[in-house]
TrEMBL record, chain A:
Gene3D superfamilies: 3.40.630.30. This is N-alpha-acetyltransferase 20. The keyword Nucleus applies. One of its GO terms (molecular function) is protein N-terminal-methionine acetyltransferase activity. Keywords: Acyltransferase, Cytoplasm, Nucleus, Transferase.
UniProtKB/TrEMBL annotation, chain B:
This is N-alpha-acetyltransferase 25, NatB auxiliary subunit. Belongs to the MDM20/NAA25 family. It comes from Collichthys lucidus (Big head croaker). The lineage of its organism: Eukaryota, Metazoa, Chordata, Craniata, Vertebrata. Keywords: Cytoplasm, Repeat, TPR repeat, Transferase. It comes from the Eukaryota.
Length: 179, 944
């Protein structure tokens, strides 16, 4: 039982339901959200419970060159409050982002995830994503822990009929090499 | 370095504009604003048209927060280069940055004439819409701006020039704002609507909204159930579906004899049809191989709720709510959201069913064999979640609250046992992960709080703190543990542990506005002034940065055609600017500066000037204050009658506003003491003069009468003794400030300034009556201060029968004393400043008259000397009290507390909490003591 609707600025004031109830959810500065809302409002969707609580949200964008067949949807953030886990909400939000990317004629959808975050990696695998490449030290360290690598995971969309976009790269890349 | 490079260049090319501007940027960034500005203006007056200079000046002006100058710059540039698309477009954006909508409209059209691109045309249209939104006069919006915008779009439609989705979106916005729902519907359903493809279900959602506004219930109903067929979990359409049914029934709607029910298709216009539809959705879920969706099951409960509200007998068609909820629990009881889902429907049960309901649910929880302590535990996390859900529901039904003290203690024992047992499921959890059983721990703390509030036994709260500290040790990133710990420590008068707890919450950005109140409510009132200043600074930094941030994104929204987001961004900016918390931290930060400022003789003027504070200006948006606090940040499972209500929210905001008004008036009255030292910004002083309120004394008396009025309102509010839920908004300092007498004493001190002003004009010669009056006021201040001080005497912490007890209200009163003394001393210093020249001139006169005259002091001078003497005594007294408390608290041997009755690890967590409280009290005392010592030093300088 979920209301899925476009994210609005007023939702920023309800974010505590997501951030004060779990640790790993990142809260960005207001400019970051506004940038997405100004440029890709359709890619920013919230799930709301009937009581008005925020259950989760997804935020993404479309980018890349069409000519080089790199035009794609990107998942910037996906977060579900712990209380609303295990309901398939993340999958639903991902499905919506994929659908939007299909409509925009994207070749694939991609996302970055910490290599240590096995739960997330497995979930994305279940949703049809595979590791395209490893990005070395993509996540900068905080409080003394070492930098962490990211998987760049991809799922081909129908426009990429031969699924060329998801053929894994043989070697890891550095953050400065990705676009 | 950059400045040197620029200088080098300038030597070679004296008139290289760009180099000058770059130098100006260098100057600006090294703090030489005035020089930078002069240099920049040198270039600007030449009206440069080279791109480099223009861009550099744009950067500079933005850093100087003078965006209006950017517009001027490009106005000049487009005059000289009238066909430049680039400069025109910069001009448009420059206007956008300052919200000059009319000029934007013109700039957009000018652009379109040079380069007929659609976006430029629609920038102009959007600027009309913005003029409508920002118009004070709604009529002007409805009869001029919006119709004009509509005609501009229609022209493009007729010429078949509409290209982009954004253009249709904007057309829709205009029609919607004009209330032309039928026309809007035609657009959405017509060929133009086909362009709305980015957002999912955009057309359907818009149609639904319009049907509702047009009260086209058949269409509303047909569309809702069509969408529900597609996604039976999409909650937003169930209410529309049910609402439309009831409207159709009320209108005795019946379908046409032949043909379609309505353009959207078949309509369900009887309860039976709707019941059948919902039942079918449920059958669909029951029969599914994959995960069932909760939507249809909850829709059934929602329908019962709505039918019952209308008194429809058909409610029984859907079944017994108790059975249905038991069934729901059977299906979804292992999901953490089960409690949130069922909580809204608990009212469907009659009170005598509550126990039966919980018993039925308990039967459906698989637990293992009972252990020694008589508790049976779950074998896996799913069973744990089910058991937890039953506990949560029991609490939400008020069953916990109904227990007597022993019953509650047994319940706590059970919750703690389940908590500790459940830890085994999370042995391999990462540091950042929560434990499966954390919620038991939180609930145990809630029951301890119930007991504390009910019996007043502070031991309950120590145990609550203990269990939360224990929880935190296993689940270091549990924000709810931290939040509740933070609140409990504050209630016990201990702010020191809060600093670390809050910083580990890693609250940032918008959270400074939504939960910053947790810090700022307590830091100052508990005497942790350094932390209080810092908390205000965190919030202020956020609010200030936001102001320049938003305009950038408004511009981006124009560029990308996200027109519907533009009013939203502006509303966001307003919401933050009008935030209650923002106004509070602005005010408190300045008050703190004045309280903490040691040098009372020299620096009031300087401080006031540095804060650009002025008595005549009130920058708080009293009528549009936004309460952005997140008052539901604490997880709570309390029953409905104990939950936070809309009335609580209203009362809390009212109380906060009154308290803020007192503080803000106090601040402005202090500023008025600083005299004419600070000139208000020119514009405002002009207005003030026009209205004839520019003179100092009328400002002063105006502020004082406002303060008195506000104090009256405050008394009325305090008399109501409003109690908020423990996990809801904290009460303000208002009631204790009044009962300590500090408000009254501060007001009396500020009131003195009127008499002093009078004295200043009359002189010392013929003002015996006035002087006596002033002296009486002095005496009264001393009496009042003494009374406040008396109210904080007593031990802040004591240990009786091996139990520790806090007296946080004494600490709060001590801080009221400190604040009040600070204000009285500012007033005293102001007195001294007025009396000194008066005394000198009097002496001169006397010397002239009679050389051997009696040198008796004027009454007021004696009175003042008496005042400073008494203040000195009061400070000495307070410092002695503080010293005594410090010694007493340091000597408390917490180790000798009898915590033997508790298991060893529990006792050690409790002891740790007590240590923290002890240390915090010492710190508060030290800060208060240091401040008073500094103050005592300065009294010497008040001699006249």
């Amino acid at each position: 039982m979920t209301t899925l609707r476009p994210f609005t600025c007023d939702d920023l004031f309800k974010f505590n339901n997501i951030t004060c109830r779990q640790h790993e959810a990142v809260l960005y500065g207001i400019p970051f959200y506004l940038q997405y809302l100004a440029h890709w409002p359709e890619y920013f969707i919230v799930a709301e419970a009937p009581g008005g609580e925020l259950m989760g949200y997804i935020m993404g964008k479309a980018e890349g060159s069409v000519a080089r067949e790199e035009w794609h949807g990107h998942v910037t953030a996906l977060s579900v409050a712990p209380e609303f886990r295990r309901l398939g909400l993340a999958a639903k939000l991902m499905e919506m982002l994929e659908e939007i990317s299909e409509r925009k004629g994207g070749f694939f959808v991609d996302l970055f995830v910490r290599v240590s975050n096995q739960v997330a990696v497995n979930m994305y695998k279940r949703l049809g994503y595979s590791v395209y490449r490893t990005v070395i030290e993509y996540y900068s360290a905080s409080n003394g822990e070492p930098d962490e690598d990211a998987y760049d995971m991809r799922k081909a969309l129908s426009r990429d009929t031969e699924k060329k976009s998801i053929i894994p790269l043989p070697h890891p890349v550095r953050p400065e090499d990705i676009e | 370095m950059a400045i040197q490079q620029a200088d080098k260049l300038l030597k070679k090319h004296k008139d290289l504009h760009c180099a000058k501007v770059l130098k100006a940027i260098g100057l600006q960034r090294t703090g030489k604003q005035d020089e930078a500005f002069t240099l920049a203006q040198e270039v600007a007056t030449l009206e440069p048209t080279d791109d480099n200079s223009l861009q550099a000046l744009t950067i500079l002006y933005r850093e100087m927060h003078r965006p209006e100058l950017v517009a001027k710059l490009y106005e000049a540039a487009v005059k000289k280069v009238p066909l430049s698309e680039e400069y025109h477009s910069h001009l448009f954006m420059a206007y956008a940055r300052v919200g000059e909508y009319k000029k934007m409209q013109q700039a957009g059209m000018a652009l379109y004439k040079i380069v007929p691109k659609n976006p430029y045309y629609f920038w102009s249209v959007m600027s009309l819409v913005m003029q409508a939104i920002s118009a004070q006069d709604e009529k002007l919006a409805q009869t001029m701006f919006l119709p004009l915008a509509e005609r501009m779009v229609e022209k493009m439609v007729k010429e078949e020039k509409i290209e982009a989705e954004a253009e249709v979106q904007l057309y829709f916005m205009i029609l919607e704002r004009l209330g032309k729902c039928v026309e809007a519907l035609d657009v959405i359903r017509g060929p133009l609507g086909e362009k709305l493809t980015s957002e999912l279900q955009s057309r359907e959602n818009k149609c639904m909204m319009l049907y509702q506004r047009l009260q086209r219930w058949p269409e509303c109903n047909a569309l809702a159930h069509k969408l529900l067929l597609k996604n039976p979990d999409d909650w937003q359409f169930y209410p529309s579906y049910f609402d439309s049914l009831f409207h159709l029934i009320d209108q005795s709607w019946s379908p046409p004899e032949e043909g379609e029910h309505c353009p959207e298709g078949a309509v369900h216009h009887t309860v039976a049809e709707v019941v059948r539809f919902v039942e079918e959705r449920i059958k669909g879920e029951d029969g599914k191989e994959s995960r069932s969706l909760r939507g249809p099951y909850l829709a059934r409960l929602e329908l019962i709720h709505r039918l019952r509200e209308r008194g429809c007998p058909e409610e029984s068609l859907l079944g017994d709510p108790l059975e249905l909820m038991v069934q729901f629990f059977g299906k979804f009881g292992d999901k953490p959201c089960c409690i949130t889902d069922l909580k809204i429907y608990l009212h469907l049960l009659s009170p005598d069913q509550h126990v039966q309901f919980v018993n039925r649910l308990s039967e459906a929880v698989p637990l293992g064999e009972r252990g020694e302590e008589g508790f049976a535990f779950p074998d896996d996390t799913k069973a744990l979640q089910r058991h937890l859900c039953v506990c949560q529901l029991s609490r939400a039904l008020g069953l916990h609250h109904a227990l007597d003290v022993d019953g509650k203690l047994r319940l706590i024992a059970e919750l703690k046992a389940h908590y500790r047992h459940g830890l085994k499921f999370g042995k391999n959890a990462l540091k950042t992960e929560l434990q499966f059983s954390d919620m038991y721990c939180l609930m145990a703390a809630h029951v301890y709080i119930d007991l504390w509030k009910e019996t007043g036994d502070e031991n309950m709260v120590w145990q609550g703190l203990g269990v939360l500290q224990e929880g935190l040790s296993h689940s270091a990133s549990n924000a709810q543990f931290k939040l509740l710990l933070l609140l409990l420590y504050c209630h016990l008068g201990a702010f020191e542990p809060v600093v670390d707890l809050y910083s580990s919450l890693d609250a940032k950005h918008v959270q400074h506005d939504t939960i910053g109140f947790l810090l700022t409510r307590y830091a100052e009132s508990l005497g942790q002034f350094a932390a209080a200043s810092q908390s205000c600074n965190f919030s202020l930094r956020f609010f200030h940065s936001n102001q320049k941030d938003t305009s950038e994104y408004i511009i981006q929204a124009y560029k990308y055609g996200a027109f519907e987001k533009i009013p939203e961004f502006i509303a966001l900016r307003n919401r933050l600017n009008q935030s209650l918390h923002f106004a509070q931290v602005r005010t408190e930060r300045m008050l703190l500066d004045l309280f903490l400022e040691a040098d009372i003789v020299l620096s009031l003027e300087e401080s006031v000037k540095a804060m650009s504070l002025s008595a005549e200006e009130d920058d708080i948006p009293w009528d549009n204050m936004r309460d952005n606090r997140d008052l539901t940040v604490f997880t709570s499972w309390d029953p409905k009658d104990r939950e936070l209500t809309a009335e609580h929210r209203r009362q809390s905001l009212e109380e906060e506003s009154v308290w803020l008004r007192i503080r803000s008036l106090t601040l402005r009255l202090l500023a008025s003491l600083a005299g004419s030292g600070h000139a208000p910004s020119q514009q405002n002083s002009e207005i003030a003069n026009e209205n004839g309120v520019g003179d100092k004394s009328s400002i002063l008396s105006g502020l004082l009468s406002q303060l008195n009025q506000t104090l009256q309102t405050a008394n009325q509010i305090a008399e109501k003794r409003i109690q908020y839920p423990f996990l809801g908004p904290p009460s303000t300092r208002l009631a204790p400030a009044l009962s300590s007498g500090s408000c009254q004493c501060q007001a009396a001190a500020l009131q003195l300034s009127v008499h002093l002003q009078e004295l200043e004009t009359v002189g010392l010669d013929e003002s015996t009556e006035l002087q006596t009056q002033i002296c009486n006021a002095f005496k009264s201040l001393v009496v009042q201060l003494q009374e406040i001080l008396n109210k904080c005497k007593g031990d802040l912490l004591d240990m009786k029968e091996g139990k520790l007890k806090t007296w946080s209200s004494l600490l709060e009163n001590l801080i009221f004393f400190v604040e009040t003394v600070c204000i009285v001393l500012w007033m005293a210093s102001h007195c001294a400043k007025i009396l000194r020249p008066l005394k000198t001139s009097l002496q001169k006169k006397k010397k002239k008259k009679k050389k051997d005259a009696n040198t008796a002091q004027p009454v007021v001078v004696c009175g003042f000397q008496e005042l400073t003497g008494s203040l000195q005594d009061l400070l000495t007294q307070a410092l002695e009290y503080i010293k005594g408390q410090e010694t007493g608290i340091t000597a408390l041997k917490l180790a000798s507390l009898s915590l033997d009755e508790y298991p060893q690890d529990e006792a050690s967590f409790m002891k740790a909490a007590m240590d923290k409280v002890q240390s915090s009290y010492l710190r508060s005392l030290q800060e208060a003591g240091d401040l008073l010592k500094k103050r005592a030093e300065t009294i010497k300088n008040l001699k006249i």
